[in-house]
């Protein structure tokens, strides 16, 4: 368990910052990832950067490793050398969280047979115009649920004949880890603001710089 993350949820100033700023920054991430009013899949990466930026803001750049090799697909950032996975999902209920992105049936089956929780998880439930939250789900909590309900109840394979994009944590498992005693959370009211956003302004300004 990353004790630095644990302490974060007891830090009243950090909690206040999360409540007040995360909806605005995630709204910006959606605007940056949208085209013709449709949000692209790259919004997930943009949200991860927002969370990583908060860790850098809170703990200092020297204590946050964001340049994690692609060979570690489950690790999104390291805080004080401890790996963390970041997952975000939008909707009324937290569901559909991908453990691995693949449309290959054999890879999905191999994942089912061999995967188990290994890393602390920062999970964000985005629920616009209602309540969601930021959750710290320690490895120990995930592993306890995994061992109790079993891998076939914890992991949900893609349904045959569909193309959902990957293997998911089951809704049952996600509810259990979120509601476990060892999980910490910050409840967030996801209110959208009126933002005058121009996706090209920053690039136009950079083109205008002297070189």
Describe this structure in words.
This protein is α+β, with helices and mostly antiparallel strands. It has one domain (3-191): ECO RV Endonuclease, Chain A, CATH 3.40.600. It has helices at 3-8, 12-32, 43-59, 105-114, 139-149, 151-154, 171-178, 201-207; strands at residues 34-35, 38-39, 64-65, 77-79, 82-90, 98-101, 120-126, 131-137, 155-156, 166-169, 184-189. The protein has a 6-stranded mixed β-sheet with strand order 3-4-5-7-8-11. A 3-stranded antiparallel β-sheet has the order 6-10-9. Strands 1-2 form a two-stranded antiparallel ribbon. It starts with a helix and ends with a helix.
Write the layout of secondary structure elements.
Elements: H1 3-8, H2 12-32, E1 34-35, E2 38-39, H3 43-59, E3 64-65, E4 77-79, E5 82-90, E6 98-101, H4 105-114, E7 120-126, E8 131-137, H5 139-149, H6 151-154, E9 155-156, E10 166-169, H7 171-178, E11 184-189, H8 201-207
Parallel strand pairs: 5-7
Antiparallel strand pairs: 1-2, 3-4, 4-5, 6-10, 7-8, 8-11, 9-10
Helix pairs in contact: 2-3
Q: What is the count of distinct domains?
A: 1
Query: Would you identify the regions where 5 or more consecutive residues have pLDDT less than 50?
Result: none
Given helix and strand content, the structural type is alpha+beta
Shape: globular
CATH topology: ECO RV Endonuclease, Chain A
> What's the main sheet like?
6 strands, mixed
Radius of gyration: 18 Å
Mean pLDDT over all positions:
91
DSSP summary, beta strand count = 11
């Amino acid at each position: 368990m990353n004790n630095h993350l644990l302490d974060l949820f007891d830090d009243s100033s950090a909690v206040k910052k999360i409540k007040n700023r995360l909806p605005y920054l995630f709204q910006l991430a959606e605007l940056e990832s949208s085209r013709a009013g449709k949000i692209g899949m790259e919004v997930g990466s943009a949200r991860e950067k927002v969370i990583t930026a908060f860790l850098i803001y809170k703990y200092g750049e020297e204590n946050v490793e964001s340049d994690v090799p692609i060979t570690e697909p489950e690790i999104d950032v390291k805080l004080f050398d401890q790996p963390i996975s970041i997952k975000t999902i939008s909707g009324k209920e937290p569901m559909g969280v991908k453990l691995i992105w693949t449309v290959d049936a054999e890879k999905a089956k191999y994942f089912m047979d061999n995967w188990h929780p290994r890393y602390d998880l920062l999970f964000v439930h985005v629920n616009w115009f209602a309540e969601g939250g930021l959750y710290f789900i320690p490895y120990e909590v995930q592993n306890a649920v995994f061992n109790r309900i079993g891998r076939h109840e914890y992991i949900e394979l893609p349904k045959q004949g569909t193309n959902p994009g990957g293997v998911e944590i089951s809704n049952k498992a996600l509810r259990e880890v979120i509601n476990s005693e060892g999980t910490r959370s910050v409840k967030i009211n996801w209110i959208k603001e009126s933002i005058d956003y121009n996706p090209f302004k920053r690039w136009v300004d950079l083109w205008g710089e002297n070189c």
